[in-house]
Amino acid sequence: MVNQTVRSFAEKVEAAAWRNIPSTYIITEQDKAIPPALQEQMAAPQPRLPRPQPSRRKARYLA
């Protein structure tokens, strides 16, 4: 990812890139800000792929 310019937020969008460029939406099961059901709605325009079963293990973070 790269920094976004202020201009990029003000310019008129002429086409939705996700319609032509392959993209991925990762649904996070333990997101504290966006519940998985809302993430599913946000990902709805994407072609549907099988959703893996949630892991029962806790994520480990490396420092």
Automatic annotation (TrEMBL):
It comes from the Bacteria. Residues 36-63 are annotated as: Disordered. InterPro entries: AB_hydrolase_fold (IPR029058). Residues 54-63 have a biased composition (Basic residues). This is Uncharacterized protein. It comes from Nonomuraea helvata.
